[in-house]
Design a protein that fits this description.
Strand content: 25-35%
Order of helices and strands: HHEHEHEEHEHEEEEHEE
Helix content: 25-40%
Distance between the termini: 27 Å
Number of helices: 7
CATH topology of the largest domain: Rossmann fold
CATH class of the largest domain: Alpha Beta
Shape: globular
Structural class: alpha/beta
Low-confidence stretches: none
CATH superfamily of the largest domain: Vaccinia Virus protein VP39
Number of domains: 2
Radius of gyration: 17 Å
Strand order of the largest sheet: 3-2-1-4-5-11-10
Number of strands: 11
Length: 243
């Protein structure tokens, strides 16, 4: 994972992708996580990005620590989630030396880890940071959602910035490639930046197996629309794992 890619994307992600995200994620986490947590529980939010979900959890009274490998993403998280402790750390290597009541890794962050052995490392780090009987909750895109990524091509523009996002899915490699063209007006000159972000589709069976290999004792799988009744999360699959 090259975090400088996410550094380049941070401004646009914070501006155009996060508006409704915490509200929808809160609805999903209510039955999957929050209903089983004690008041004031400690939560580690791995791959916290621009901190919107960390802010949502902090406002509910939880003690939140957000971790991300992108320094630029964390700079926005500092503004969005001032109540949270923020740490620059790779999901595959994070070692805070303490444990939490819950660990989260949200909005298909696991799909951004495109090597299975790295996913196992990230799961192992989540397991190591959990107290006994603690919960690990994450979500991924289904294969259908991955294959239909191109149908959600996106563009937006403002007086000082513009972005064009297009995507395609390769069934053989199971990789979704998001091609981003971004423009920023700097000192009267438009600057262009092109980058590609990849996501890997993993089957439910693969992820459950990797969770067990990482030490988790039990796993529950919930579909965003069929089980949680969140229409916008159709094609998003949630995993709840117990230490």
């Amino acid at each position: 994972m090259a975090y400088d890619v996410y550094d380049s994307f941070a401004f646009f992600y914070n501006k155009y992708w996060t508006a409704a995200a915490p509200f929808l994620m809160e609805k999903a986490l209510e039955p999957l996580l929050f209903s089983g947590l004690p008041e004031g529980a400690e939560i580690l939010d791995i791959c916290c990005g621009t901190g919107n979900n960390a802010a949502m959890m902090a406002k509910r009274g939880y003690k939140v620590t957000g971790a991300d490998g992108s320094r630029a993403m964390l700079s926005y998280a500092a503004a969005n989630a001032p109540e949270a402790e923020l740490i620059e750390a790779d999901a595959r290597e994070i070692d805070l030396g303490r444990q939490f009541d819950a660990v989260t890794c949200l909005f298909d962050s696991i799909n951004h880890i495109t090597r299975p052995d790295d996913v196992i490392k990230a799961f192992g780090r989540a397991h190591a940071h959990l107290k006994d009987n603690g919960l690990f909750v994450f979500d991924v895109n289904s294969e259908r959602a991955s294959a239909e990524a191109g149908e959600r091509d996106f563009s937006a523009a403002d007086e000082r910035d513009a972005i064009i996002s297009s995507a395609g899915y390769d069934k053989k490699s199971r990789l979704t490639s998001y091609h981003l063209t971004m423009f920023m007006l700097e000192e009267g000159t438009w600057k262009r930046n092109d980058l590609t972000i990849e996501e890997k589709y993993y089957t439910e069976q693969e992820l459950v197996s990797m969770l067990h290999l990482s030490g988790f004792s039990g796993v529950r799988v919930s579909e965003g629309w069929e089980d949680l009744e969140i229409e916008s999360f159709e094609g998003r699959i949630f995993f709840t794992a117990w230490k």
